[in-house]
Design goal:
single chain, 2 domains, alpha/beta, DNA polymerase, domain 1, Rossmann fold, globular
């Protein structure tokens, strides 16, 4: 895939640049490299920065390498899932000693990219006729159709309920299992639509939206991997290092919010009106507690509508100012 074919407008670009602005030098890990839009901005604004880009989509890696070729001395891209950040850092260090340092930043722009959605053969979109795949790395794991071939009614119902389809979850799940096996995305979308009462179909968006999202999260184990990479990053980042996460789904945002709060409070559960008396020590501070895209950005890039940015800065083990 060429860089132009993997063009993707970075969401909340200026806000992300602002999070990392104090980190003029050091190593930043872009754990969701995509077409390299955020990484390009980070490299262009500070000549002393180096970027390690990770992506589980090999076509994204190829496109980003071509797009950022002028920064080849300060940029490295590795075909790796972000929950393997520790192994990726070790591999980068073996390749180039400039990358043998504790990272000062981690950026995660979650969800599926526009190029992935717009390529019918990837199977992410219910609007485009294609194989029901949804794997971000097509070389690994089970496709969405393979998962549907073996999943139980209870498990599928639970998956849909946990990812926003609470009203008709069991009804949709039953119809989905009755309609298998699936050869295409549109075939599944039609089954989902037909499972919902006509009156309900007349309001809201396409009924397949949340179902396809739930399947994609399951196919790629996205929520589990997000939890793992953040837990690793808290230990890997140097004091003063920053983590920024752009989420697009309530399940993703809930994980980020919870793990960030635990770091900021040090795990304190004391009632806020009394202050902390349990001796908990904060390990991070908020940089961006929660921020949504501007009205202008949403108008120019509707897919940014559901984005939520959160960011923290890791503190010294000895406390602030140590």
């Amino acid at each position: 895939m060429t860089p132009s074919e993997f063009s993707h407008k970075p969401v909340m670009f200026e806000e992300v640049m602002g999070v990392f602005a104090p980190l003029a030098s050091g190593l930043i890990v872009d754990g969701t490299l995509g077409g390299g839009g955020h990484s390009e901005g980070l490299l262009a604004r500070e000549p002393e920065r180096i970027i390690l880009g990770l992506d589980r989509d090999l076509s994204a890696i190829s496109a980003a390498r071509a797009h950022l070729a002028t920064y080849s001395r300060r940029f490295m891209a590795i075909h790796q899932e972000f929950d393997q950040i520790d192994g990726a850092l070790a591999a980068a260090c073996e390749t180039d000693s400039a990358f043998c340092k504790a990272p000062t930043g981690l950026l995660l722009d979650l969800g599926v990219s526009s190029p992935q959605l717009e390529r019918a053969e990837r199977g992410f979109s219910y609007r485009l006729e294609g194989p029901l795949d949804m794997r971000m790395d097509p070389s690994k794991g089970q496709s969405a159709s393979e998962i549907l071939d073996s999943i139980s009614l209870d498990d599928l119902t639970r998956l849909l309920r946990e990812n926003g389809e609470s009203r008709f979850a069991r009804r949709i799940a039953g119809a989905m299992l009755k309609g298998r096996p699936y050869q295409s995305t549109v075939q599944l979308a039609d089954v989902i639509k037909s499972a919902i009462p006509a009156a309900a179909r007349r309001t809201g968006g396409h009924p397949a939206t949340r179902v396809f999202q739930a399947l994609r999260l399951r196919v790629n184990n996205e929520l589990e991997k997000l939890h793992v990479v953040l837990e690793k990053a808290f230990d890997l980042l140097a004091p003063g290092g920053r983590i920024a996460v752009l989420s697009y789904h309530s399940g993703e945002d809930s994980i980020v919010k919870s793990l960030f709060r635990e770091q900021v409070t040090g795990g304190c559960i004391c009632p806020t009106r009394y202050g902390c008396v349990c001796g908990a020590v904060a390990k991070a501070r908020y940089v961006v507690r929660s921020k949504a895209p501007s009205k202008e950005e949403i108008e120019g890039n509707p897919r940014s509508r559901s984005a939520r940015l959160r960011a923290v800065e890791m503190l010294s083990p000895n406390g602030p100012g140590a």
